Amino acid sequence: MAKGRSGSSFRSAISGRFVTAKHGKASPHTTVFERSGGGSTGGMYRSAISGRFVTNAHGKRSPNTTIKDS
What we know:
Elements: E1 8-12, E2 18-19, H1 21-26, E3 31-35, E4 45-47, E5 53-54, H2 56-61, E6 66-68
Antiparallel strand pairs: 1-2, 1-3, 4-5, 4-6
């Protein structure tokens, strides 16, 4: 698992795995920057492109560019 500094990391929207900071910065449309201790979001989908929460329908239609937060 590739962890970033100070409790933050990048996660791939395609595989769901943690990736290196170098890969995360090189692929901003398919990776999400996460901070530790963010709390629960109740299973909402978040866009890797905008960082905003999106509807369940959009999240299911776009599995390569959204991450389901828990």
